[in-house]
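Below is a typical protein record.
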Amino acid sequence: MGVASQTAVSMINALSFNKLQESEEKYRTIIESTEEGYFEIDLAGNLNFFNESLCKISGYSEGELKRMNYRDYATPETAKRMYKAFSEIRRTKKPARVMDYEVIRKDGSAIVLGMSASLIQDSTGEPIGFRGVVRDVTERKRAEEALRASEERYRTVLEANPDPVVVYDMDGKVIYFNPAFTEVFGWSLEERLGEKMDLFVPEENWPETKMMIEKMLAGVSFTGIETRRYTREGKTIPVSISGSTYRDVDGNPVGSVNTLRDIGEQKELEAQLQRAQKMEAIGTLAGGVAHDLNNILSGLVSYPELLLMEVPEDSRLRRPILTIQNSGEKAAAIVQDLLTLARRGVAATEVVNLNHVISEYLHSPEYEKLELYHPKVRLKSSLETNFLPIMGSPVHLSKTIMNLVSNAADAMIDGGTIRISTENRYIDRPIGGYDHVKEGDYVTLAVCDTGVGIPHKDIEKIFEPFYTKKVMGRSGTGLGMAVVWGTVKDHKGYIDVQSSEGKGTTFTLYFPITRKKLD
């Protein structure tokens, strides 16, 4: 090779070396100026190159890091993850990301890093080490953990809430149901997620529902709005709804949280309280009227008897006097029922077997008269054999049975069957019905007929004095069911009424048992 050729080669090599130096300097400047930590390690994990940012992240000096292996600042768990990650990179020769692994700084504090790494190969393609970039994600990780903990805390609160909760977005689509919502209304979150819930709003309840939607869109909270909602099975239940808008971090409304409380039981208890207060007021009025009428009727009932003793059998006056006497006796029966209704707090101090009271009634003149007036009516009984006793008043219990049977017979114009049954029952959970039956041990008396039934709208009124669908003056005093109600309450019992128009009615009375023995 000539001098010129050698000179040319030397110049080319010099230029290449200068370019290489310039390139290395450029990349070194980039690596040193970046905030992320850069590192290069050999196949054994020893650090042989890194930037200043890695020193800042780890807390070690340049001289300290040069003598370290990545395992020296890693937790045991991190060392396993790093070894697994580097082994996978070496096997596949593809870059990889390792997120959220923990290392220990020089001062002993723990930080969380995220890493991207790749394989370093020599000119022949043989692996000689790994290079990578790490970033400190401790604060982000803490923020995520705090957010996750906060979300979990609020989710726990929502899921522990005994009232149904539903969360909507601004379009009214479901984001979340809590378990209580599924329990009360039947729909699962999977069924309705991302869907609207228009299907559980009854048509007649849309006005107040639209008002709630308008409040939500305006960012206004609302509380205790009473309305009704369908369950998945199509049953309508009364609910009280409270709702508020929830917002994103910038304060923009993004949806609403609504709490629905089933107030069916509350409504029943309110209705029962109103009935009790009404009956109490009627009883007070009845007592005052009865006492005044009693004084007036004393002569109307007693004097006809004296007159009949003096009037001959063939006298034309005898029939009018008998009519007066009969009317007086009917009026006296009404007064007696009024007094029974008024004298609330009947002393129920005797130990009574209700089966005996029923048997005595079925052999009484009153029942014989009922059979005479209702020849097409048949009575069947099914009485508990080992029937438990109750504390009661046999006279008032007998009148209660008589009124229930008489009422059942009157309901079967074309005849039918009355069934009387008794049973020992333990109520392990409250029963909602006409009355709210509490837990406990009871004996029950059920009187069932196959008569005309009671319209649903009339059931609330059937125990009110003088409320009747019968022809006035042809049957009873108009106070029979009021006396039943009063007697049951005086015995600390409960009443349930089940009726269907055209199919009949069943009255079930619940009386608390006693552990005292019969005399």
